[in-house]
Structures are given as structure tokens and as C-alpha cells.
Design a protein that fits this description.
Number of strands: 35
Radius of gyration: 27 Å
Distance between the termini: 32 Å
Low-confidence stretches: 1-36, 647-664, 673-683
Length: 683
Amino acid sequence: MKINNKTTAVLVSAVSALSALSVLAPVQLSAGAADLKKINVNAVKNTEFNIDKYNPALDFGRRNGCGKDQKNDYYDFLVMETEINDLFAAQGYPDRKLACNAVTLSDDAQKAGLTPYDLDLTKDGHLSPEDYCIYLRAISKDYNVTLNKGDSAAEITAYKGKNTDELVVPASVYDDDYAVILPVMGIASNAFSSCTNLHTLYLSDYRQANWINCIGQPMNPDHKIMASTYLNIREGAFTGCDQLSEVYFPQNLVMTNDFWPVDGFSGTPFSKDPEHCFNRLGVYYYKDCDTESPKIVAFNTDDRIYDYGTEIAFIPGTTSINNKFFESFYYSKNDIENVVIPFSVKYIGFEAFAGAENLSAVNGVSFSGLDSRIQDTVIKFVNAFNRTPFMAEETQNKLDDIIAELAKDGITKNSPEADKELAAAKAVVKRVTYSSYTTGRSFSLYPDGLYNTIDFSRANYASEHAGLNTGFTECGGIAATYSLLLDMLDVKNYRVGGDEHSFNVVNINGSWRASDLSGTCGNTNYLIAADPSLDRAEAAEAYADSLTSADINSDLMRVGANLYGEPSFSLFEASKDKQFTDEENAYYFVLDDTDRSKLRVYCYTGEDGNTSAPNEINDRLAKFSDNTVTAIELRSGLQQVGNIVYFINDYSGTMQQTDNFMKYEDLKKAGHKFDDWSYSYKK
């Protein structure tokens, strides 16, 4: 297997923000919590067995739990992982192996005739994660897998095991090179094209292990199927499987290629069977072969959807709704005013209904009128409702509540600007915890970042609604929430940033400054890591109350300094004419140390993309009536503001000499400052 070396924006953002957190509160986990994340890699590598040849002594589990099924497969690993991790959890995750003669397996395992010694694959008289890693490693060898640590996930690119008629595809894989267990979140096109004999296919839900996360808390003691992990079957994944007629789904199933709905089972007998692939009211569904608890995924639409007016009602029993579901009828999604979601839905895909300009109801009512069970589902997948009036109304309600609370404390639009800024910052820090896909470092056994271990969609970090509705978001959600509050308090500000990080610039008493709340919103994690007995809300409130203006403002600049175009701002009355809503994020800025009264803005135009159009910028800014923003003109990639020279393009190394500007080295020798740069990564 190989690691995907593409550095994602998500991973970079996590590293950037957590670097800031470490400066604020460099608290270490307890020794036990930290050491438990390590395994003896050599012990795993040196214990080999062949998964192809059935071994009754290694037959621990079947599809629905403990018990023999005359196969050695992923179900056996699940029994091992569950039993061993639960034993560690019951003892508070001690930093040692567990002696087989000192532990007792679960009632289910005992009824199946299992003993601790059966699960001891290293045969050292003890149980540890190495034992189940050995089993999963043997299973993983049947697959070519691409790992993406930025997404904390794996994708199966090819099956290389025997051409069998029945197959249990693992929902997690072990990688030798990195000694990690990652969820399988994708099956690539043609991945199983060699399985010409395959008749029956079992696809399993990934269950976050009952282990400990990055701040030392249990991940999943209830063994829930987390909303944060899904399985994406890409177009033609089972091309060549001419016998495939029986498939069992996970509940969190989607079928997309780059977020466009596709038919993941196209060409198989399964996809041609009208009992399993069918159309109702213009929506295509797949239904699996489980007669006791069938899974149904709504994966696409057809042209007939246009004939059904302003409502889409998913059939009862639907368990999953595809990523970008509305994209398949992009030009009519704005006709949809109501979506009917049955209680059976367990997964709603990334931005499934996003951008539907008139979607104002779910099940015929606003969010506050929904049954609590549907409310919980909506919040788990709140990104599915990005840029919709339905979710904007609920977020606005929460903003209104905050404004009302601030008014009780004497903070209104008429208060001093510095007081309003600090009050808004405290309100955000009390309610929102910084969280990311990863921990900003290499985990050693499981993905252990908060977003991987709480029951919210992985993509919620990308939602403008996540902060106030889930309590967890990344820098972009924090910056958006902060801007919304500042706009309601009439404090001039912009959400800014770029691919690497997002923050705010705020104008206080005529002076522009940078204000970045990611670190402050993340501090609660460190407080709890140091003292797990703390209540999160109480710890966040106490910390927020201690903040001063100096804590939330900085003169430091961050990379990727663009004026962030966020279309969602247009749905909030106080922000729609105060924030940029351009989706292309074409405007960039610099802060001038010699004159903080102006936010200096530029954009890329011209054939070479390196020149600015001040008239265009001024026209764009005119509707804001903001005389504290002014356009600057670019020439040949360098811009001098006051005595500071800014790099506008992401050049590396020496700048070439031009007719108008000296080389970088000559500028530096001449005494120009270069400690406050603004990079742009727009190509």
C-alpha cells in the first residue's frame, strides 16, 4: 500500500490551527493515554497466517456477532477488536497488555465458546491491539489500497485475492508502512473487475473503535456506526462481476464520482434487477438483499423529478441519501421548497441539498418544528443544508439568542466597538470548540481527531452552520460565526483567509487588525485533556470570561490572505451587504503597518494574472460604503506599501529583476522589511 502524498487543505488547516493551540496551552496527555497509541509493529509483522486457507481455530465471528461461520474473514477481526478493546476500556485503558488468565470475555463471546487464549494470536499469554492487527493485516493483503492520512481514510483500488463466489469486503484496513488502522471510505472504479465468479457481496459499516481519542477520552463506548464515516462506491467499481446478484449494504452508503451521483453497480445482474434498482417519483433507489433489515440508498434522480412540483419525498425505509444529491437536477433545485426525510435515514451525503435557494422546510416545517429524531439527523449532517433558507433560519435564531444575552450584559450596537468585539469573541469561544479531521500529528493506530470520533458528518467542518448548531467546527466555521455576530453588532469586519487558514479582520476605532479565534476556541480541548473531569461547557465559559482584547487581536498576518467570498452570507440580513459573497474568492488584501486605517485590496486580472484592476475593485466595494478599504495596483508580482514589500504571487527563491523593481536580495540589502508577507496561492 502507499500513502497519498497530496496535502489536503483540511490537513494543512489542522496543522496551522493546532500550532497556534500548542502555543496557548501545551498540555500533554497522560502517559497511559499517549503510550496506548503505540503498538509493537514487529510483533504484528512477525506473526503470519494465510487467510485463504480456512482455520477453525481462527473462526471467531459471523455477520451478526460471535460464532463460527466456517470462514476466516473481516467478521472474525471485528469480534477480536471489540472484545480486546472493551477489556481495555473496562480497566481505564491501562498502559500494559492484559493477561489472558486475568480477564473475562463478553457473554456473547463466552456463549460462542471463545476464551481469551483463542484471541491471543501472538501466543504470549496476553491480549493487546497487536493481536487483532495481525488478523486485519492478513485480510488487508488481499487488497491494493490508497491511504489518505489527510482524510484519515483509505480507498480500495483493486482486489487481488482469490476469485471467490462470496466476499466480505473489510470496512477498515491495516497498513504495514504506517502501522495504522483506517476506515475504508471508498471503492475505486474497476476495483473488483477480477471477481468474475463473485455472486454474493457483503459491505460492512465502519464502526469507530472503542479506543481513546486525541484528548484521552473514549471514542465509541456504545459501538455506534458513526455518521462521520461512509462508504463511497465509485462508477463501475464492480465492472466485470457478471455473476454479482446479491449485495448487502452498509447504512452509510453513497455512490459518487467527485461528488456527482453515479451507479456504483452498473453492469451487474444486481443493478438490472428491478427489485434492487428502481425508480419512485423520479428518484432512483438501490435496495440491498437483507430481508430482515434492508438498506435503501437514494442515489440519483431523473427528468421526471421536474413533474413533481416543489417537494421531494424519500420513500419510507430509505437509509442513505447520496452526496450532492441535488446536483443531478441542478437547474431545477431552486424549485424545491420542502424535503421529506423518513426516520429510517441514517446518512445524508455531503451538501446533498446545498444551494437550494428556496428550500425552507423539512417534513413541511422549520427546524424548530421537527421531531427531535429528525432534528438530530439534520444536525449530524448539517452541511447537507449549506446555503439553504431552512438552515440559515435556525442559525439566525441562535445568533438572535446570543444578541439578546449580550444585551442583558449591556452590549448593544451602541456600545464601544472594542467592547462589542470582545463580547462577540467570548460568545463564540463559549459555544464553539475547534476540531479538525486530524490532530495535526501522525496518529499511530486509529484516526483520533475529534471530528473522527464524534457522531457528526466529516464534512460538517465545511458548513457555515456547524459552529452554533453542533458546537464543533474548524477555522472557516469559527470565522464565519464571528463575522455573523460582528455584523449584527455593527462592527466592521471581513472573513478572510485562504486554502490554509481562515480568520477575520476587524476595524476597531478606525484601525484594522487581525483577529483569529481558532486557537482560543481550541483551548478547551487542552483544558479537558489536562483534567478529563471538567465539563466542556463550564470549562469553555470560564476560559472565555478570562479573555481580553489583547488575547483576540494580532498584528501578525497569515498565509492565503484573501477576502473570503462566502455565498451563505447573502442569507443573513445583517451580513448580506457587508461581506463578500463571490464564490471565486478573487479579492486579496494586505495590512499596512504604517497605516492601519486602510485595508488595501487587490485582485488578479490581465492576461498574465499578475495585474490588478483598481476600478473594478472600487466598483465592487462601493456597495459596502466602506471608506476604510482601498484598492492597490500590482506590478510584476511585488507590491510596496509603506516600507514593507509584499510578495503577491507564491514565488519560491529569488525574484527576477524587472524594469520597475529590484531583486529580492537587493531590496533586503536596501533595508526593506520582509517579516510581514502576504502570500496568495491562487494560480
